[in-house]
Write a structure and sequence with these properties.
By secondary structure, the chain is of the alpha+beta class. The chain is built from 6 helices and 5 strands.
Length: 129
């Protein structure tokens, strides 16, 4: 009797913790910081193996380690490690839905055309004065 009631209390407490964790995860997944501008030189500064993983995520928009590993031909565990490295470095954002962790870019890449337009705007504002 006593043993069963203790187990029931532990189970109720675990369920309560699970509900609170789900609420915390939902609150964090709603946070979307504005993307940071990124130049091509920053992308080139990444090691080749991380750059390949990052470019896959950029092309897909949002994906998990299994999807990335299918496209790169590398093992899922390796891709998971690379994706987590990129996340810690601030290159990717990650969110967890159930057991799957999805990664997406936390930057916007400026194309050479956008860089040229930005340089032109700087030059044109200098000539105004």
């Amino acid at each position: 009797m006593v043993r069963r009631s203790v187990l029931e209390q532990i189970y109720k407490e675990m369920m309560s913790i699970r509900v609170r964790l789900d609420d915390i995860e939902n609150n964090f997944s709603k946070i979307n910081p504005p993307p940071m501008p990124m130049t091509e030189s920053n992308l080139i500064s990444l090691p080749d193996h991380l750059r390949k993983t990052y470019m896959i995520v950029m092309s897909k928009g949002e994906c998990d380690a299994v999807q990335v590993s299918n496209l790169t031909g590398r093992c899922r565990a390796v891709e998971s490690n690379y994706l987590n490295q990129l996340s810690r470095m601030g290159w990717l954002n990650k969110r967890r839905i159930s057991k799957v962790v999805y990664f997406r870019s936390s930057h916007t890449v400026n194309s050479p055309l956008q860089n040229l337009k930005a340089k032109h705007e700087i030059v044109s504002t200098r000539n105004v004065c």
